[in-house]
Amino acid sequence: MKTVIQVIQHLRPGGIETMVLDLQRFAAQDERTIIISLEGDRNSALADWPRLREHAKRIIFLNKQPGFSFKLLVELRRLFRILKADCVHTHHIGPLIYAGLAARLAGIKRLIHTEHDAWHLTDMHRRTLQRWTLRLTRPLLVADAMSVARGVRTHLQQRQVRIIRNGIDSERFRPGDQHFARQQLGLPDNVQLVGCSGRLEVVKGQAVLLEALSQLPQETHVALAGIGTTEQALKDQAKRLGIEQRVHFLGRTDEMPTFYQALDLFCLPSFHEGMPLSPLEAQACGIPALLTDTGGCREALCPESGRLVTPGKPDEMAEAITEMLIEQPHRNPRDFVKSEGDVRLMAKAYNDLHKPLHRREV
User: Which residues of 282-316 are buried (b: 16+ CB within 10 A; e: fewer)?
Assistant: First the structure.
């Protein structure tokens, strides 16, 4: 039985966090997978995200506080030895610094690091820090999209980058009854509904979607699933644009398949993305997707049923929404997800990496 330890910054609802939980759920039969969250405590995390309860026995929270912690480095090294880790898998720069260095100090031979986006590497300080950390830890480097791999090769001067695209559980996310789904969520039945899920933050671009909605007919509504710091600003914007009755703030939504099943169209208006999961989830439910052309969005989109638009362009977005709500897609986007973006494909690729590597390990 191999012990694989995944290390993540925190366990709040999000794409990377969902991916880590899925990798644990779909681990190979000969693997014991443990998740270490650098930040947060068990009680708060379980209260904020009920999905964690089924994983609770295999999650360790270290409650890291702001600032650098040498104590955390020592604690991770101790944990890796106690747990007899065969492989350590880190996600993003913070876990790479702490767990990467601790893994090498503990003598762990197999170290994998997944980079989930590349736009943050345009910052010189982050870029320099990550370059030096990669030189010290020498992990097997994975990117979750072709666009991320290009950014890693360019900014971090790393040529050996594997690509393993994110995947979602197409058995959980599947088509359903739209009328029933809208009843469950308290959404109107006699409208065309465009949905967006994700953190309510500036980078996610919900303000652009609301601007686009103001140009669309009265029977077109928007449903926003998620919480974040821009919620009140978005509500104020909707009121200012005179569309407050057509924008439905659902808050944190635990039953995401129901949310997607309620929609006519899914829209992701982000300014920056890595390889997003929400378009895959929506398309697995048979819902066409309209995405901004950023990060790995192009790779997450069924090319025969979906569209790409320029980030930050509400006029272009409004025109695309209008056309997509009228036309019939040439292909069911669910077929695309099952063949290109299922979690089982992703898990198998990572499980293969957990086996002894065909190169000299350090």
Answer: bbbbbbbbbbbebbbbbbbbbeebbbbbebbbbee
